[in-house]
Inverse folding.
């Protein structure tokens, strides 16, 4: 838009970040700046048309029974996209990630208990990410019992819990070979989620039986679609994190069908 600054006509662009509106200076009013503005307007029209098409696709997927993303989680994910979180090896984990796998494999959604929790994994400290999210207009407050000094758990918009899991060194198993996915909200939010095979093994290392259920479903699907991926992930886990194998095998004693599938895959590719 054209406005007056210090007695001169200048062009600025307004951009909303959360509940705040900021201005970006484009230049003084001259032929060169007006050409840039005209180009930007044409790109804006193209982007709007593309976004409308994406919105139609998202609506169709949601209507077909694909898991949708709640409004608050979608706002946080959009802000994370904006600050480059997913470009720096950050990813969505937990239920929000698991909800993407049925669409990825073209399968019906399994029964999965929804939790008001958004789990995020990255090599960046949680407090650093929080400061960027707050700058984007996201209301974040420390979760009860979790001081802001560790930056692990926060409440977003007073509605959902956001968990920041900081990993480094040998803990980065889940971050390797990430996959792109779209959170189904409005025109869609492009995010990163764990490799399905790695996530399945990661769930077997958890003490939560809900995670075991996710692993059981994934192991069954992966054994049909891409069994070598599961074999490769298992071998990499065993090589880089050998102490994890004992815990994984202990969990599989409660999951005989998944244990049998994994044993068969290991026998095939050994």
């Amino acid at each position: 838009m054209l406005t007056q600054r210090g007695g001169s006509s200048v062009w600025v662009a307004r951009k909303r970040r959360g509940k705040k509106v900021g201005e970006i200076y484009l230049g003084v009013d001259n032929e060169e700046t007006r050409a840039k503005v005209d180009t930007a307007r044409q790109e804006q029209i193209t982007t709007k048309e593309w976004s409308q098409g994406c919105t139609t696709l998202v609506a169709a997927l949601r209507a077909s029974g694909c898991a949708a993303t709640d409004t608050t989680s979608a706002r946080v994910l959009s802000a994370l996209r904006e600050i480059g979180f997913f470009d720096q090896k950050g990813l969505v984990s937990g239920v929000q990630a698991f909800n993407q796998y049925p669409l990825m494999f073209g399968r019906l959604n399994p029964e999965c208990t929804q939790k008001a929790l958004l789990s995020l994994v990255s090599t960046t400290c949680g407090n650093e990410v929080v400061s960027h999210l707050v700058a984007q207009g996201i209301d974040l407050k420390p979760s009860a019992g979790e001081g802001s000094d560790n930056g692990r758990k926060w409440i977003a918009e007073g509605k959902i819990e956001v968990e920041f899991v900081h990993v480094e060194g040998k803990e980065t198993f889940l971050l390797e070979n990430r996959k792109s996915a779209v959170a189904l909200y409005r025109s869609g939010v492009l995010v990163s989620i764990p490799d399905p095979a790695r996530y399945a093994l990661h769930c077997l290392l958890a003490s939560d039986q809900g995670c075991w259920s996710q692993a059981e479903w994934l192991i069954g699907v992966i054994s049909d679609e891409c069994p070598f991926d599961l074999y490769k992930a298992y071998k990499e886990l065993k090589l880089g994190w050998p102490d994890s194998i004992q815990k994984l095998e202990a969990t599989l004693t409660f999951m005989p069908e998944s244990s049998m599938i994994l044993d068969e895959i290991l026998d095939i590719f050994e």
Residues 155 and 161 are 5 Å apart (CA to CA). The mean pLDDT is 89.
